[in-house]
Every structure is written in C-alpha cells, then in structure tokens.
C-alpha cells in the first residue's frame, strides 16, 4: 500500500522551487535509470528546497549533494532514489529504519512510501531542524531519535528495511540483527578509500549481498555531537 501524503499548500513553492522544477528533476532521474514509479512519485511530492538553507533553495532540484552545515550534506537525489528503490525491491516494507537523518530529506521520501519511518541522528542540531521540517510538512509517520546509529533502534526492531546514509567501515552487525528475515539493509561500505553501495538481504541462512555501485558519503562516526 502506498501512503500518499497531502502536503500543506504553502510548501508547494514557486519559480525555482515549483512543482514544475521538481518534475524536471524526476525526468532527469528517470533518464539516469530510476524506474520505480513509486519512488519517482515520492520525489515529485517532497519539496527538497525545504530541506536546505534558503540561500541554496534555487539549487535544490539539481541532482547534486548540497551542504547542510556541521560538515554534513543532503544526499544527491539520484542516490536517495536508488537507495529507496533498493529498500522497496521485492516487497512493500512497512517499518523502515534510517541511520543518519541529516536534513531529513531521505526520511521524508521514505515516509511517502512506507507506514513508519524511524530515523536516528548523532548531531542534535541537525535533528532539531529535521524535526521542524517533518512537522511543517505534516509528516507524522516519522519517528526520530538522538543516538549513535551503530546500535540501530533495538526497541523498535525488527525492521523490514534499513538505510544507512553515512559510509561505514564494514557492515554494522547490530543492524543486520535488527532486520527481519527477507528485509534489506542498504549501506555505503568503505574499503581502502573506496565506497560501494551494498544491498544486504537477510536470509534464513545468513545474508545475500548485492553491489549497487560506487558512491560518496560522509563517514559514519561514533558517539554523539
Ligand atoms: N539522510 C540524510 C543524509 C545526511 S548525511 C539526508 O537526507 O539529508 C549523513 C548523516 O549521518 C549526517 O547528518 C551525520 O551526522 C549522520 N551520522 C553519521 N554517523 C552517524 C551515526 N553513527 N549515527 C547516526 N547518524 C550518523
């Protein structure tokens, strides 16, 4: 089941932030190989300009990562789309965990597609801003937590899917354990200075891994900030 969210009219945007500009981004993503219509619909729905500083809003619908302060970035739309496709692959997850809330954009896209999104961030200042955005857009199926995401969100486990939006050295074992059998963990894994986006499906016997290609993410760090 797809959860369509009706956004408040004042967030629709004009000119460089209009629905038309958003639709152009969707067409660009389609031409770059994103084919899941559910994902494209979610990207056309969520106003990305609401997730960046106002000074950057005219660039919000370019297919690039942008700075969000505190040395962090909002992910490139293509990467958000690709990770979301991987999470939806082979089913309709209800409960998804995201590690690395950042601006909140990835969580907002997920919130259009699944019943409940749980998102964890280690930088309190970013989390506060993200919460404000979720509230403004009426995205009340996103639950946030200020914590080190290496530990996941044990009391809410198991999850049907988990997205990690920061590069991890190796696959965090706790996260695999918090995945339902058949669920997918999508995580950028760093090895020798190179990051690969991995889709790891938990099976009865262990895990199945798929390499989705090269990516560039900020590093996953430990502790709180
Ligand atoms: N999903 C975000 C991308 C943010 S960039 C978006 O759509 O905007 C990655 C984020 O991961 C940063 O905000 C960073 O602080 C956070 N992060 C890094 N290590 C983390 C950890 N161990 N636990 C939780 N969040 C972490």
Main attributes of the structure:
26% strand; 225 residues; alpha/beta; seven-stranded mixed sheet; two-stranded antiparallel sheet; Rossmann fold
User: CATH topology of one domain, which one?
Assistant: Rossmann fold
- Helix/strand/pairing category: alpha/beta
- Which ligands, by name, code or SMILES, are bound? S-adenosyl-L-homocysteine
Let me know the CATH homologous superfamily of one domain: Vaccinia Virus protein VP39
Strand order of the largest sheet: 5-4-3-6-7-8-9
Strand composition percent: 25-35%
What is the number of helices? 6
Please summarize the sheet with the most strands.
7 strands, mixed
Mean pLDDT: 94
Give me the strand/helix succession: HHEEHEHEHEEHEEE
């Amino acid at each position: 089941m797809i959860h369509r969210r009706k956004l408040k009219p004042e967030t629709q945007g004009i000119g460089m932030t209009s629905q038309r500009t958003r639709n152009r981004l969707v067409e660009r993503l389609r031409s770059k190989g994103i084919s899941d219509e559910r994902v494209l619909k979610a990207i056309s729905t969520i106003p990305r300009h609401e997730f960046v500083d106002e000074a950057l809003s005219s660039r919000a619908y370019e297919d690039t990562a942008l700075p969000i302060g505190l040395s962090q970035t909002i992910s490139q739309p293509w990467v958000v789309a690709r990770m979301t496709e991987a999470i939806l692959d082979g089913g309709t997850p209800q409960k998804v965990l995201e590690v690395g809330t950042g601006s909140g954009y990835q969580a907002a896209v997920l919130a259009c597609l699944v019943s409940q999104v749980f998102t964890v961030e280690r930088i309190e200042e970013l989390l506060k801003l993200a919460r404000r955005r979720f509230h403004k857009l009426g995205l009340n199926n996103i639950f946030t937590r200020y914590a080190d995401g290496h530990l996941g969100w044990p009391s809410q486990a198991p999850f049907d899917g988990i997205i990690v939006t920061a590069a991890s050295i190796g696959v965090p074992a706790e996260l695999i354990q918090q995945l339902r059998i058949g669920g997918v963990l999508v995580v950028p894994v760093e090895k020798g200075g190179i990051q690969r986006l991995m889709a790891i499906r938990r099976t009865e016997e262990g895990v199945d891994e798929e390499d989705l290609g090269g990516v560039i993410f900020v590093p996953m760090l430990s502790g709180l900030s």
